[in-house]
Amino acid sequence: MLFVHCCRIFEITNFPFMASSSPTHFSLSHDPSSSSSTPLLNLQTQRTIFSSKDFEKTQLRIPVSFRKEAVNLQMMASGKTPGLTQEATIDKKDNADVFHDMKERFLAFKKLKYMDNLEHFKNLADAQAPKFLVIACADSRVCPSAILGFQPGEAFTVRNIANLVPSYESEPSETKAALEFSVNTLKVENILIIGHSRCGGIQALMGMEDEGDSRSFIHNWVKVGKKAKESTKAVASNLHFDHQCQHCEKASINHSLERLLGYPWIEEKVKKGSLSLHGGYYDFVNCTFEKWTVDYGESRGKKEGSGIAVKNRSVW
């Protein structure tokens, strides 16, 4: 057995393991005189042939935090300051780290929220009664729970490309199924459609010609918002493409809200006052949120397809 005692910073480069007819035992541990109580490496291998090339490909079980710290210390020693790009590069090499962080966040949730509100979560396990149906974009930068603070049980959520609502007469879709379930079974009191800045789905809609590529799943979906595109072109065709997209991002929300009134069971509840329809626009460039509510009484007097009337507009 070979024991190599090492200090906190160490580097192994092409360590020469020679071929041997008997198994090789290899063990590394930290300096006993070190103040750290965490072993840096505890590895034993038994191999008949273990070349330097094999060693380079072997994943050593060194704690993630130490690997990153050691690399940063080596950079500092060499006069190189580790930046965001360098740290991101290190993270990409450790694919398991993504789930490590996810695990830590889950355990924190379990300890700080779930266990501290056990009775609430037990009630949720039996039934849900959310007040909101949220229709939001699938964009990773637009998480309704993170942005608006929805807690478990508060919002039934469906996310799709460009937060679009298909017409009542169109083919079945997961968005229509979510509408039916949340309104008729869960009996939500509010539907909130959230659009956002720099939406890739809206950019695809504004950039495609006519009906787009029929082979593209994206084009076949975003053309649901073609009326929003047409209304944008009618009033903003002289603007830069980016500004046209920004206009369409908001226009598509109102077109989707208008479409909701085309669902008989939704309009019936809105008319009775048991259901309210809202629009929201999250600008993640400037971190603002604009909210408005459909004025059903005023909207009824409008010609079908001419838009909706809104009220209670505010910017947060």
Task: Tell me what portion of residues adopts beta-strand conformation.
Answer: 15-25%
| Shape by Cα distribution | globular
Helix content: 40-55%
The count of β-strands is: 8
Strand order of the largest sheet: 4-3-5-6-7-8
| Low-confidence regions | 1-30, 32-73, 75-91
Please tell me how large the radius of gyration is. Answer: 28 Å
Concise structural overview:
With 316 residues, the protein is α/β, with parallel strands linked by helices. Helices cover 42% and strands 16% of the residues. The protein has 13 helices and eight strands.
Features:
globular, about 40% helix, about 15% strand, about 325 residues, two-stranded parallel ribbon, Carbonic anhydrase, 13 helices, six-stranded mixed β-sheet, 8 strands, alpha/beta
Describe this structure as you would to a colleague.
With 316 residues, the protein is α/β, with parallel strands linked by helices. Helix content is 42%, strand content 16%. The strands form two sheets. A six-stranded mixed beta sheet has the order 4-3-5-6-7-8. Strand 6 and strand 7 form a beta hairpin. Helix 10 packs across helix 11. The longest helix has 20 residues, at 241-260. It is globular, with a radius of gyration of 28 Å. Mean pLDDT is 78; it is low at 1-30, 32-73 and 75-91. GO terms for molecular function: carbonate dehydratase activity; zinc ion binding.
